[in-house]
Automatic annotation (TrEMBL):
Cross-referenced InterPro entries: Methyltransf_25, SAM-dependent_MTases_sf
Protein name (Swiss-Prot/TrEMBL): Methyltransferase domain-containing protein
Organism: Sulfoacidibacillus thermotolerans
Example GO molecular function: methyltransferase activity
Highest taxon listed in the record's lineage: Bacteria
SUPFAM superfamilies in alphabetical order: S-adenosyl-L-methionine-dependent methyltransferases
Pfam families in alphabetical order: Methyltransf_25
Amino acid sequence: MFQFPDLTDAIRDFLHFGLAISPWLVSPDTTERFDAELFHLIDYTAKDFVRLYWSTDSAQLIFTNLPVPERIPQTAIYETIASTAVQYSLLQRGEFFVDEDLLSQAIHQVEAFIATRGLGTLVGIYAIVTSYENHEALAYYGQIPERIFISGKWHRPWIDYSLGDELMLGAVTGSLRLVIKERQRMVEQTENGRRFLSVNKYTLQKSGYLDYRKNMLQIAHLHHMQDFDDLEALLIPQSAPVRREFLHWLGITRGMQVLEAGCGSGTFLFSTGLAEQVGRSGHVVGIDPAAGMLAHAELTRRLYGIDWVSFKRAEVENIPFADQSFDAVVGVAFLQFSDLHRAVNEMARITKNGGFVASLHPLEPDDLPDFYQQWFQPILDLEAKFAPFGIKAFPKGEEVANAFSKANLSSIETKNIPIHLDFHDPDKATEFFIYGLGIFQELLAQVPWQARLDLIHELKKRGEAIKARYHSNELIFPITVQMVKGFRKE
Ligand SMILES: C[S@@+](CC[C@H](N)C(=O)[O-])C[C@H]1O[C@@H](n2cnc3c(N)ncnc32)[C@H](O)[C@@H]1O
C-alpha cells in the first residue's frame, strides 16, 4: 500500500511559517473573497513556482514512482497561497476579504517555506491534508456520487477546480474506487483507503495540524457571531450577575497589572467592570486568538475612552509576555477551548510571585435533561462514533483546581454556583451552543462541510419539535459554574 514518508516535522514547520490549506473550511459561508485580478496573480505565481522549484527528484521524495498528475504541484501552491492569505485576513483583521498586501505576505511566506523545505514537501503536505478531507468525507458518507465528489460540493465547496486528479491518484494508489449503484457512479473508500486515512490522521494529529484546524474553525465561527453578548444574555440569564460575583470574589485592586485570557469581545472588561476596578493607575491586557472578537473589544474600549486597557492576539497556551509580568491573570469561559494544563502553566508563568491566577468556567454536567437528549440526539450519536479520537469538553469537578496545584499554585480556593441554561428559543439556542460556546467543535470539526450544515439545520428543526412538546419552563438545563483561584508561591 502507498504511504507518504513521515511529514510530521514538515507539517509543524508549515504551521510555524503561518501557512494554511483550505481555511474556507472554517467559514460558514463560501462567498467570494478575492478580486478576479488577484486570482490571476495567484495563478501566475503558482505556475512560476512550479517552473522554478519542481523537479523529478522532489516529486520522487514524496510520491516515489506514482504518476503525479501534472496539475497537482500547481494546485498545491495555488491552494496554499490563497488559503494562507485568507487566514491572514481572518487573523490580522477579523475578516475574510483578501487585498494585495495580504496576498503578497502569503506569497512571500509560501516561497520562504519552499526555499527551506522544498516544493516536494509542500506538495506532500497538500496531498496528506486534502486526502484526509476526502477520506474523512467518504468515511462519513460511505459513498459519494462521483459527480459530487469531483465538484467537492459536500466536503470542499471552497475549491474552484475539479478533484478529478485526486480521484485518479486515489484510484492508482488503491485507496479509492468507483462502484456503480443504481446506475450511478459512486466513489468509495477501499480497505487500503481506511488504513491510509488512519495513518494520515495520526500524522496530522501528532504534528498539531488537527488542533490548529479545529481552532481555526472555532475562531471563524465566533467571527460570524456578532451578537454573542445578546445571545448569551438570552440563553444564560445569570451570566451577568455571575461575572460580577467573580469580579468581586477576585479582589482585584486599583493599580494592578492584569491579563485577561480569552477576553473575547470584552464583556468581562467593560460590562462587568474589570477595567474600571483596575483603574487608570493600573493596566489590563486582553488576549484572544479571534481577531474579530478583539476588533469588537477595541471598539468598545474607544467608546468608553479607556486608555489603560490594550489587546494582543494570542492563545493562552502561548502568552507573549515574560515570566512574572502580571499581578493577576484571569479569564472567563475560555478554558474549554484550550489545553487545560498548558493554559494553566502559561498563566502561572507570567504571574508575579504572590500574584494570582483565576478562572470562571462551566463544569461538565453530570446528567443531560430528557428534552436535551431528544433534541441533541444526532450530536450524541456523533459523539459515540468519534469518541475514540478524544473529545475535549468542559472541565469536571476538581480538574481545574488539580491543574492549578500541578502548576505550583497554592492556597487554591474554589467556589461552585448553580445556574441554568434556557433553551426556549430553538434557533438561537442551536446557534449559541454550536458557534458561541464551542461545545461541539471537536465533533463538528470531524464532520464534512455539507453534513455539518445539515446537522445544524436538523438541530434547529428538532428544537422546534421539542418546543411544541415541552412547556417552556421545562426547557431549562441546570449546570454549575466554578470559580478557581490560586496564588503563585513567593
Ligand atoms: C465563550 S467566549 C468567552 C469570552 C469572554 N471571556 C466572555 O466572558 O464573554 C470564549 C473565548 O475564548 C477564546 N479562545 C478560543 N481558544 C482560545 C485559546 N486557545 N486561548 C485563549 N482564548 C481562546 C475565543 O476566541 C472566545 O473569545
